[in-house]
Hints:
mainly beta, four-stranded antiparallel β-sheet
Amino acid sequence: MYLLGKPGREWLVGFLCPCNCGQFIELSLLPTTKPRWKLAVHANEDTVSLRPSVWRTVGCRSHFFLTNGLIKWC
């Protein structure tokens, strides 16, 4: 997972699709864009969570939540 921006002011998150299709997913964290996601970094567990779910409308069409570093498929 890659974060772009300064700590506490990240504006983009990117990662490989968890279905292993090889596609790179980029999600906006900017509050002024739609759609946008919220990223929570759990420092004590060294994990992250994303809200809302990620639902790819092209390619593999995966739909999942990232919660405490784990993929939860929809």
